[in-house]
């Protein structure tokens, strides 16, 4: 009887350990997937509107230098917009970047 009880306790302990491991792996893999999705979204950005020598500039993905520099000084913008430009505003399409540029240059 004692051996049977010991075997039952051992089986329950193994099931508990396996449950904890499966839960941990599941939570960790979901977090990795969400991080990969975030990275993928960021890597799809075709353009970034950012600062270049105090002016707003358009950077194309893969280029270190801006493809176009606008006559809009970053210092002339409100603080919130200045912060957005300094951190870089990404766009995934031509039409999206055109709207963003128009908002800053018109």
Structural account:
By secondary structure, the chain is α+β, with helices and mostly antiparallel strands. It folds into two domains: 43 residues; 59 residues, no CATH class. Helix content is 59%, strand content 20%. It contains three helices and four strands; from the N terminus they run H-E-E-E-H-E-H. It has a four-stranded antiparallel beta sheet. A hairpin with a 2-residue loop joins strand 1 and strand 2.
Number of strands: 4
N-to-C series of helices and strands: HEEEHEH
List the uncertain runs: none
Global shape? rod-shaped
Tally the structural domains.
Answer: 2
Which keywords apply here?
single chain, 106 residues, 3 helices, rod-shaped, alpha+beta
Compact overview of the structure:
The chain has three helices and four strands. It has 106 residues and is of the alpha+beta class.
Give the helices and strands, then pairings:
Elements: H1 2-43, E1 47-52, E2 55-60, E3 68-73, H2 79-87, E4 89-91, H3 94-105
């Amino acid at each position: 009887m004692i051996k049977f009880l010991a075997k039952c306790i051992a089986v329950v302990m193994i099931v508990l350990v396996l449950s904890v491991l499966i839960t941990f792996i599941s939570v960790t893999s979901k977090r990795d997937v969400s991080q990969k999705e975030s990275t993928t979204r960021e890597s799809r950005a075709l353009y970034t509107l950012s600062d270049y020598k105090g002016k707003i500039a358009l950077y194309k993905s893969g280029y270190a230098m801006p493809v176009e520099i606008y006559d809009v000084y970053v210092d002339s913008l409100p603080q919130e917009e200045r912060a957005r430009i300094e951190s870089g505003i990404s766009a995934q399409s031509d039409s999206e970047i055109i709207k963003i540029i128009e908002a800053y240059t018109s």
